[in-house]
Amino acid sequence: MKRAMDNAEQIADWNGALGRRWAELQRDLDAMIMPFGRAALDAAAPSPGQRVLDIGCGCGETSIQLARQVGKTGAVVGVDVSRPMLAVARARLASGPLAQLAQLSFREADASAAKLPAGNDLLFSCFGVMFFQHPAVAFGQMRKWLRPGGRCVFVCWRKPRDNAWAMTPLMAARQAMKITPAAADPLAPGPFAFADEERLTGILVDAGFGDIAVQRFDAAVVLGATPRVAAENAAGFGPVSRLLREVGAAHLPILLDAMEQALGPLAAADGRVSLPGSTWIASATNPG
Ligand SMILES: C[S@@+](CC[C@H](N)C(=O)[O-])C[C@H]1O[C@@H](n2cnc3c(N)ncnc32)[C@H](O)[C@@H]1O
Fold first, then answer.
1. Does the residue 232 lie in any domain?
2. 84-142 confidence digits (pLDDT tens)
3. Cα separation, 124 vs 50, whole angstroms
4. Residue 51 in domain
5. What CATH number should be reported for the domain holding residue 90?
6. What's the pLDDT score for residue 186?
7. From the CB of 282, is ligand 1 less than 6 Å away?
8. What's the CA-to-centroid distance between 138 and ligand 1, angstroms?
9. Lowest mean pLDDT among 22-26, 204-208, 262-266
10. Domain range for residue 58?
């Protein structure tokens, strides 16, 4: 039997520098990601009164949107392993207009192993399900939380080469460090783990889902208001943040200069750097 322990490395990352950066950059990241999150929310279209799980909910933006959609008679639980990100999500709920969302709660748990109540109508995720060591096992477990006929809808990144927002800064950073990357394992847990459509479909089939549909959705990712801000954002998350961890923070100024130079010619007249992003929106049904 494969165990939750298998996700230990990812759980440590999302509770370490990576999770803290996502928590700090919550507003910027929400702005970058939400065009894709909105497309997934449109595909999921939860109705008032429904019970929803938001897997890998992070700082809670899509959980909040889902809670508004299901209304007071529904229930949304955001599930995540990252304490710093859940702290932001909970703080957003603690005051102001969001304090009214009594139907929304957050839970710290590894979604591949958590014990959650069954009978949910929707399993949703915005870029939060590509980090499992054994994805088919994890999806098989999560499927049991759905009622028969309940749906799973999530958005995940397609191939790196179709995601210039990630690859353009990464290539500039690698060049600056004179790094030729070792061939990466495309199946390893991480943002691009579900890039291959056949693999993605296979995982859902193996997990026991039916009625599987995978649709491409592309949109621009606004990396920053200026090339410098875009470079700083690229260094804060995504593949460059991993590279920075490998080469050491002392190299940050060199990487920032290299990325700023590469992004400069791509900026719009107002300075904004906005690059192509490409995703899959997957949906599937629990046959029961
Ligand atoms: C790329 S972030 C996306 C966060 C959020 N959905 C958003 O759109 O901003 C991925 C999220 O998945 C969470 N995650 C990774 N592995 C997980 C696991 N095994 N169980 C639950 N959440 C997990 C991370 O902690 C992180 O919050």
1. no
2. 999 999 999 997 888 889 999 999 999 999 999 999 999 999 999 999 999 999 999 99
3. 12
4. yes
5. 3.40.50.150
6. 80
7. no
8. 14
9. 22-26
10. 4-159+185-219+279-285
